[in-house]
Write a structure and sequence with these properties.
The chain is an alpha/beta fold. It has 15 helices and 10 strands. Helices cover 43% and strands 13% of the residues.
């Protein structure tokens, strides 16, 4: 009798959603396009989902609806398409005044800040939104049904200085520990999303167990790594910054940079720079492994394997789009951001992270949608459904 070949298991595609505040609306457009180009009634094409900061919120939204991917994306788009800043942080006069006063008091007295979260903005509306709209119990149900293998959300510990990925996954996934980063199994809830998305200085830190945690993008030296630890064989990465292809122009600075410009560059270094470095490192390792025979890797017990990666990133500059919609902010927030220089061209980077207004978000969703359709064939091949579409 001819020998029967056992079909190889289908590679697990990991989805990596980076941080970026309001810029994460771009990810929603990408996901909307993916849901449309997949065959009807396709289950969640990403068994492993990892998110950081605002990307963590999008990741959790996909995970709780893994049994009905297309419907989950529709609901996610409905939320982002109707966003206003008061869904994320208090933008009323009393709320802004109270929070600003607390920040000033913390500068005068260190004792004041010991027991009161201090930040530029009060994001309690976001917590209420997450607890209202996310059925977190569905995560375990989706894992049991096989529609989801693992969900990982990364936050950064202010005391330990460690990058911690809180994950909920199938039993085969084991905790890990590497230099300054580790993975811990938990039942994911709103508090983990709040911790992962607590942008430094802008939103307050969140206490989880014994430690306060902030935005997971801080010192996240290997943002692709959690997806691999959770079992992904290949990774689709959705970025939130237009790839830099040309050297920036050197211009003569006539004035001192405003606070918003400095903060914008700091946020860029937190959210996007480490991803570029990690992706470059992954591709370099892939090229190196091509030169080493498989038998040699096995003989020397070298735990390295090639990992296919694909990245979708904005084809247009998000800063310029943000500046176009600055007027949509409530008047109190416009005045606050104007005071720190965020309403001008030099402050548009910071503005793009906090502009949670429907017109801006819808524009980014449309940009992500169109960018993804431009790569439709490559995307379907990568996910592994080209023959079925």
């Amino acid at each position: 009798m001819p020998e029967q070949r056992v079909p190889l298991p289908k590679p697990k595609v990991g989805l990596v959603l980076t941080g970026g505040g309001a810029r994460a609306a771009y990810q929603v457009g990408v996901l909307r396009a993916i849901a449309e180009v997949l065959p009807d009634k396709t289950r969640n094409p990403f068994p492993v989902i990892c998110g950081t900061s605002a990307g963590a919120i999008n990741a959790a939204s996909i995970a709780v609806a893994a049994n009905n991917f297309a419907q989950g994306i529709k609901e996610l788009e409905a939320v982002w398409s109707n966003f206003h800043v008061d869904h994320i942080y208090r933008s009323d006069f009393l709320g802004v005044f109270h929070n600003t006063l607390r920040c000033l008091l913390s500068l005068v007295s260190s004792e004041f800040g010991k027991h009161n979260p201090i930040s530029l903005l009060d994001n309690s509306p976001l917590e209420a939104l997450l607890r209202d709209r996310f059925p977190f119990r569905s995560i375990q149900y989706c894992i049991r049904s096989g529609a989801l293998h693992a969900l990982g959300l990364t936050a950064w510990g202010y005391t330990s200085g460690q990058s911690v990925t809180f994950y909920q996954a199938a039993r085969t996934v084991l905790p890990w520990k590497r230099a300054q980063r580790l993975g811990i199994p938990v039942d994911i809830g709103a508090e983990h999303l709040m911790a992962s998305s607590s942008i430094p200085f802008i939103f307050p830190a969140v206490r989880l167990n014994r430690e306060f945690f902030g935005d997971g993008s801080m010192r996240q030296l290997a943002p692709i790594s959690p997806a691999l630890h959770l079992g992904a064989d290949k990774v689709l990465i959705i970025g939130v910054r237009k790839p830099v292809t040309d050297e920036p122009k050197r211009v003569h600075a006539s004035t001192y940079p405003p606070f918003a410009q400095i903060a914008g560059h700091a946020l860029n270094s937190i959210f996007v720079d480490s991803l570029d470095v990690d992706l470059e490192r992954l591709l370099r390792i892939n090229e190196t492994l091509k030169l080493i025979p498989h038998d040699t890797l096995k003989e020397k017990n070298i735990p390295l394997r090639p990992v296919e990666a694909m990245m979708i990133a904005p084809s247009e500059g998000i800063n310029e789009i943000a500046q176009k919609y600055a007027y949509t902010l409530p008047w109190i927030m416009r005045n606050l951001y104007r005071a720190i220089g965020a309403m001008g061209p030099n402050g548009s980077t910071l503005l793009s992270y906090v502009l949670f207004e429907a017109p801006f978000c819808r524009d980014l969703i449309e940009l992500g949608y169109n960018d993804t359709l431009q790569q439709k064939e490559e995307l379907l091949k990568f996910i592994g459904v080209q023959g079925d579409a």
